[in-house]
Write a structure and sequence with these properties.
198 residues, mainly alpha, Rna Polymerase Sigma Factor, Chain: A, Arc Repressor Mutant, subunit A, 2 domains, 9 helices, 64% helix
């Protein structure tokens, strides 16, 4: 734990190596999570949101206290707020050239017809769940955040995370697994159902 706090503390004072380590350990997971969420604006990609998230984190790190796990929750919370702002801005401006479905799934991503892989199956399966359950499972089971970091990222209590996780996993146990979905991607979601994050 002391090494984790030290890493964040070093990043706070501008240590480039500490920032690189934090970036390398969290960016991939952050990108995966943002890809499961609709941006609301066709001109803003998950990669754009990741870059903006790190920029905001660098500007605000002086006000952060905690270790790496707390930093992950804080960082994901920044990304959630930026994604929400992007969706609100796109709705206000009505800049999306595609018609909005009456009741779209919250995590649906467009794919080519007939192309399905494990990651696509995971996205579509999570999109069938109620929004909170899908977001909690995306963070705990797909990205690998613990309950506390997930609670921080979503702005809810750890108890609410545990309840949403339990309900979401219960619903997922009833979802059939297609043969086309790849085993590693499915195991990242389905295989960890019996495990509980810290």
């Amino acid at each position: 734990m002391a090494a984790e706090v030290d890493l964040v503390e070093r990043a706070r004072v501008g240590d480039a190596d500490a920032w690189r380590q934090l970036y390398e350990s969290l960016t991939g997971r952050l990108l995966v999570w943002l890809r499961t969420r609709p941006s609301g604006d066709c001109a803003v990609s998950a990669e754009d949101l990741v870059a903006e998230t790190w920029l905001v984190a660098a500007q605000r790190v002086a006000h952060f206290s905690g270790g790496t796990d707390e930093f992950a929750g804080w960082l994901f919370g920044i990304a959630r707020n930026l994604a929400s702002n992007t969706r609100r801005r796109a709705r206000r401006r009505a800049t999306d050239p595609h018609p909005v479905e009456a009741d779209p799934l919250w995590g649906t991503l467009e794919t080519h017809a007939g192309e399905i892989d494990g990651a696509d199956w995971v996205r579509r399966t999570l999109a069938r769940l109620p929004r909170r359950e899908g977001e909690v499972l995306a963070l705990t089971e797909v990205v690998g955040l613990d309950v506390t970091a997930t609670a921080t990222a979503l702005g809810i209590s750890p108890t609410a995370v545990r309840v949403a996780r339990h309900r979401g996993l219960t619903r997922l146990r009833r979802v059939p697994v297609p043969q086309q979905a790849s085993a590693p991607a499915i195991e990242s979601l389905m295989g960890s159902q019996s495990a509980s994050p810290a």
